[in-house]
Design goal:
The chain has 815 residues and is of the alpha+beta class. The protein is built from 32 helices and 22 strands.
């Protein structure tokens, strides 16, 4: 009404004031007003529209500086001809600012900005086009004002701002039109697998540009994926480490492209890294881009040769994201079926040597020097022997200059060995529940004498036709030194302490410690969990690890790494099964019941709405085919509800614990002990006050200094034997739940479970947060890898034994 009155009176200053008011309202209130206003103002004579625009610009600079007002003003000015020069500076400033955002929810504003710039004959900057594309992808409605205009924004082909995309745009520009078309084909990779038409078109473009040129470029692009953004963005939500949503399809196409252009070891390495990078979890988001990871798996599965197969086998031990892990498993199963052998055998046969020629050692001549690869424990040492026979850490300058590619490949091989050692260690650790066995002849060939796997196998204990043995020099012997059968047909399995005499396990522990052999994972010192009297009474469930409070995100990551399936508990109206681990070879499924803790009323949620903490309850075992139990994610009782069942799974009772095989029970409870021991809030040395609201004060106190778990008990037994070997051994004793350390200023008690510290005699709490200063200290020989808490306890002990030399003010102020 007021707008019509101002128009009728010809009061353009008043009309400008009214239109600014409309333009500065919230976006969900003014679209109707704007449409009506534009209709009426567009009917004004040209001279009045021009004058109105100038009045409005003056109002804009007087204080109506909002994106909405600018959008309305641009629309008005665009209806005035001429008028493109009006607000030119303001438009450029707005475009520059929007170019730094991830997206913009106001699509109408973007359309007006784009049309005004097009009318002025100016090219839109690439970062702004990138933001417009992301804005449309972020919109949740099916139709959008941007739909009509996006087809016109064809340049740049990729969104700039990511290191790999910038490099791809630059390289493609040197290839002319074929380069631009190739990037467009990469963007068109929107299916789960490359179609024949897509592959045919890409191969034609590669042939036109040159296979070698494309191969070199594609590897360079892959090497930049995941690098920090070259154009930082203002993040309204999410993470600046996410892939650009528009470029993600092109990354999928890039993975497929790499598998088409003479793939070699470097290609396989790059695709494996792409899987890892794309599945890296970002805070409150989850995996960075599963679809890109899946595309890399597809590319690996389509790549012939042992290198790609080995990379798939390695990834199968490292990937925890279930959909991608399933794809990897399918690819390996397919290869195994084609070869007519088992999945386990295909993984063993595909393990590469990476240039190692004997167990743990390899040499390669490069010019007049020789590269020496040597595996020591879980790390690879690369050194060089000069023509004069001198051993040096780096290649001679002449060799490095003349043979740059060979040197680069050898260094990459050393890193590959480190990664594969970790993967093979985890694969061997899983053999306890995999029920794997070998004829001794095949075992020697594939395991014991394999140049890479042998470095792990020779530090483990095996059974040969039921007799426990380990490699002592060049022969397999018992802990007592007796030689064991060398019959190639004898059955070999990985030794486990469950079911073996206690004296035998103790003998092997002493055998390893006397020889200072560090096992790749706990075997001789592995904790066992026999059935207790309380568990015989409860019958079909164990409460051994109930009543603990765990950090949910850390638990979730640990569970995935140990092969459990766990759904992250969000503060929403939803249901979920308890975390579970399927044991198909045993026909069982283990369940670990948990419940969410806290909520919005406690301010105890993550920024994504996930519960920060969970409480632990029962451990149960069910037949594999039994229906899952379900409960609300916010808490409540678990139950097998008929309307939650899938595929008609039967409702079956949990198994009595005494019916669960000893090995299975022990390994599952060991997992749960790990979850509690690592993820418990009681491990946080800064939580003496009980955390948020003090809710966990009593629990923290009981866990931080309370009774020991089986793992902590074993830790104390080991420390008792190791202390005489340590330089500070005469200052330390193990008594009950604590390692006592006598320093110059005080005597300290370090809890064997949590690693928390009390100062005697008044038990004053000493807070030392593990970090660069704690953990970097060499703790000396340990008989196994993987117990970080033990390493932290020893590091703290060494620090406190020389407490007069501590300079860190966060510690000295407490002493």
């Amino acid at each position: 009404m007021a707008v019509r009155a101002a128009i009728a009176a010809g009061d353009l200053p008043e009309l400008a004031d009214l239109l600014v008011q409309i333009g500065t309202r919230e976006s969900n209130q003014w679209p109707g007003d704007r449409a009506s206003m534009l209709k009426r103002t567009s009917e004004l004579p040209e001279d009045q529209r021009q004058e109105l625009a100038r009045h409005w610009i003056s109002r804009y600079h007087e204080g109506a500086d909002t994106a909405v007002a600018l959008s309305v003003m641009i629309t008005l000015i665009r209806t005035a001809d001429p008028g493109a020069e009006l607000l030119e500076v303001e438009r450029q400033e707005r475009i520059e600012r929007l170019s730094q955002d991830t997206d913009c929810y106001d699509a109408h504003q973007l359309v007006e900005l784009i049309r005004a710039e097009q009318k002025a004959g100016r090219r839109l900057p690439g970062p702004f086009v990138a933001m417009v594309r992301r804005s449309r992808l972020a919109a949740y409605w099916s139709e959008d004002p941007l739909d009509d205009i996006l087809g016109e924004l064809t340049e740049p082909v990729l969104n700039p701002g990511e290191a790999w995309a910038d490099r791809a745009l630059a390289d493609a520009a040197t290839w002319g039109e074929p380069g631009r078309l190739l990037l467009q084909r990469l963007l068109a990779a929107r299916s789960a697998k490359p179609t024949r038409a897509w592959e045919r078109a890409v191969r034609a473009l590669v042939a036109e540009i040159g296979p070698g040129t494309v191969r070199t470029a594609a590897l360079a692009w892959l090497g930049l994926v995941g690098s920090p953004r070259t154009l930082p963005l203002r993040i309204r939500y999410g993470s600046d480490q996410e892939y650009d949503a528009y470029n993600a399809d092109a990354l999928r196409g890039l993975a497929w492209l790499a598998s088409l252009v003479e793939p070699g070891q470097d290609t396989v390495r790059a695709l494996g890294a792409l899987v890892t990078t794309s599945l890296r979890k970002l805070p409150d988001i989850g995996p960075r881009s599963p679809k890109v990871a899946n595309a890399a798996v597809v590319a690996l599965s389509r790549t012939e040769g042992e290198a790609a197969l080995a990379e798939l086998a390695r990834l199968s031990t490292r990937v925890v994201y279930k959909p991608t892990l399933k794809m990897i498993g399918t690819a390996l199963d397919s290869r195994a079926e084609d070869a007519g052998i088992s999945r386990e055998e295909i993984e063993e046969l595909s393990t590469p040597t990476y240039g190692l020629t004997t167990v743990g050692r390899g040499e390669r001549a490069v010019g007049d020097a020789t590269a020496l690869l040597e595996v020591r424990g879980s790390k690879t040492l690369l050194s060089w022997r000069t023509a004069a026979g001198r051993i040096v850490k780096s290649p001679p300058a002449a060799v490095k200059s003349a043979f740059a590619e060979e040197v680069k490949e050898i260094r990459a091989a050393a890193k590959d060995i480190d990664k594969m050692l970790t993967a093979q260690s985890e694969r061997l650790d899983r053999q306890f529940l995999a029920r794997r066995s070998w004829p001794q002849g095949r075992w020697r060939e594939r395991i014991l004498d394999h140049p890479l796997v042998g470095t792990l196998a020779r530090r483990l204990i095996w059974t040969v036709d039921g007799v426990s043995a380990a490699l002592d020099g060049t022969e397999l012997r018992t802990a007592d030194g007796e030689r064991v059968s060398a019959d190639p047909s004898a059955t070999v399995t990985l030794w486990h302490p469950v079911g073996r005499p206690d004296a035998e396990a103790a003998a092997w522990r002493h055998w390893l410690e006397d020889r200072e052999i560090t096992q790749p994972f706990k075997q001789a010192h592995r904790e066992t969990y026999p059935l207790t009297d309380v568990e015989r009474t409860t019958g079909n469930y164990s409460n051994r690890f109930a009543g603990h409070f765990l950090r949910q995100y850390q638990f979730h990551a640990l569970a995935a790494a140990r092969g459990w399936t766990s759904k992250l508990r969000l503060c929403v109206d939803d249901v979920a099964p308890p975390p579970y681990k399927e044991l198909p070879l045993w026909g069982l499924r283990a369940e670990f019941w948990i419940e969410s803790v806290g909520g919005p009323e406690d301010g105890d949620l993550s920024s994504s709405g996930a519960y920060q903490r969970i409480a632990t309850d029962q451990v149960r075992f069910y037949p594999l085919e039994a229906a899952h139990n379900w409960a609300h994610v916010g808490g409540g009782a678990y139950a097998q509800r008929a309307y939650w069942r899938k595929d008609g799974a039967p409702i079956l009772d949990p198994l009595p614990l005494h019916a669960v095989p000893e090995l299975v029970l022990s390994e599952v409870l060991r997992d749960v002990d790990l979850f509690v021991g690592v993820a418990s809030v009681g491990n946080d040395p800064t939580w003496q006050d009980g955390g948020p609201g003090g809710h966990f004060r009593d629990y923290w106190q009981s866990f931080a200094f309370g009774d020991l778990s089986r793992t902590a008990q074993a830790r104390g037994e080991l420390l008792t034997r190791l202390l005489p070997r340590l330089a500070i051994g005469d200052r330390c004793t193990v008594e009950g739940r604590f390692l006592h350390v006598r320093g110059e200023l005080h005597t300290y008690r370090i809890h064997l479970g949590s690693g928390n510290i009390l100062i005697a005699p008044m038990d004053r709490y000493l807070c030392i947060v593990p970090g660069a200063r704690v953990g970097a200290t060499d703790s000396g020989y340990l008989p196994f890898e993987g117990d970080n808490t033990l390493a932290v306890i020893l590091s703290k002990a060494m620090l406190l034994a020389n407490d007069k030399e501590i300079t860190d003010p966060t510690i000295t102020t407490q002493l």
